[in-house]
Design a protein that fits this description.
The chain is of the alpha/beta class and 184 residues long. The chain has ten helices and five strands; from the N terminus they run H-H-E-H-E-E-H-H-H-E-H-H-H-E-H. The strands form two sheets. Strands 1-4-5 form a three-stranded parallel beta sheet. Strands 2-3 form a two-stranded antiparallel sheet. A hairpin with a 3-residue loop joins strand 2 and strand 3. Helix 7 packs across helix 8, helix 7 crosses helix 9 and helix 9 runs parallel beside helix 10. The protein is globular. The two termini are 27 Å apart.
């Protein structure tokens, strides 16, 4: 996380593959969960356990308290790293990225690493209206974050829907895909 939060170090990390292999594009060095932290849910990596969050969303009030409008001001370090990378590579493609709303939701509800996200699955099933509200707020946050990356001259931004495997094919659009589209 220190590398992610220090733009000069993130730049060095992003440039290493370019310098070593001469690739024609560079990927921003960051983490898909910086948005979770910007929304008030800090995280750490714990040896042997995985991710651990400072808290988790467990109520309607927690969802109501999410403020997507402030994420970009809290993620200035990401945008500074992206600007440094763009300046260092004026003739190469620069790629940014974000977690999908669904993937962010999985971590924010679960509060930790999990193979099958039982809290999240139960939340989707028992609280469909709250789930939709959460996804709308996270779509807004993802959208703001992506737009800010393009303002820093990213050539493209990839959305990682890392936990879509929790969904069946017939449920994908309704529970994840449409929220990615809303973010765009």
């Amino acid at each position: 996380l220190n590398l992610v939060k220090t733009p000069e170090l993130a730049l060095q990390a992003a440039l290493q593959p370019i310098e070593r292999f001469g690739f024609d594009c560079a990927i921003l060095f960051s983490d898909i969960l910086v948005l979770a932290e910007a929304l008030g849910y800090g995280y750490n990596f714990i040896d042997g356990k995985g991710l651990s969050f400072s808290g988790r969303i467990s109520s309607k009030k927690d969802i109501e308290n999410l403020n997507a409008e402030c994420v970009c001001e809290k993620l200035g370090y990401v945008f500074n790293a992206l600007k440094l990378l763009r300046n260092a590579l004026p003739k190469k493609a620069v790629l940014g990225f974000s977690a999908s709303p669904f993937t962010l939701g999985a971590y924010l509800i679960e509060g930790e690493s999990s193979k099958d996200f039982p809290r999240y699955k139960a939340f989707m099933k028992t609280e469909p209206e709250l789930f939709a509200t959460l996804m709308q707020k996270l779509s807004n946050a993802v959208g703001l974050y992506i737009k800010a990356q393009f303002k820093c001259n990213a050539d493209a931004v990839q959305i990682f829907d890392s936990h879509s495997h929790l969904l069946g094919e017939k449920n994908y659009w309704e529970l994840s895909g449409k929220y990615i589209q809303a973010a765009l």
